[in-house]
Design goal:
The protein has 121 residues and is mainly alpha-helical. 64% of the residues lie in helices and 4% in strands. A two-stranded parallel ribbon has the order 1-2. The termini are far apart.
């Protein structure tokens, strides 16, 4: 994965970033309810793998699989935006350069229509 953002920052850093990110997500009064029945350790592993794919690693899921996984949660625009805000914050706190963090967020935002199913709230 040389020449990718994963190669630049390393998997261990991504695991730390995702773990810290979900600590804040679980503390969020607006986001925590989405994860009440989700095994967090598994989610951290899954999201780390997905972040690796977004950062140039092997592709982990198709957009259709992402849509299928998120549809039951009726995720709204505001909640998606809050997730993106927290993720960007943790990418930067975790040591990614701003330009790289922005690139990652841009790639996550490209999946908006596969994740968001509620247009308000």
């Amino acid at each position: 994965m040389a020449g990718t953002l994963v190669g630049k920052y390393g998997r261990a850093r991504l695991v730390r970033i995702v773990s810290a990110f979900y600590t804040d997500v679980l503390r969020s009064p607006t986001l925590s309810h989405y994860f009440s029945d989700v095994p967090i350790e598994g989610l951290i592993g899954h999201q780390t793998q997905f972040l690796e794919a977004v950062m140039g690693g092997p592709q982990s899921h198709t957009p259709e699989e992402i849509m299928h996984a998120h549809r039951p949660y009726s995720i709204g625009v505001d909640d998606f935006e809050e997730m993106m805000r927290l993720l960007k914050e943790h990418l930067v706190l975790g040591g990614l350069e701003d330009v790289d963090a922005d690139q990652v967020i841009h790639r996550y935002r490209a999946l908006h229509d596969y994740v968001v199913t509620v247009t308000s709230g």
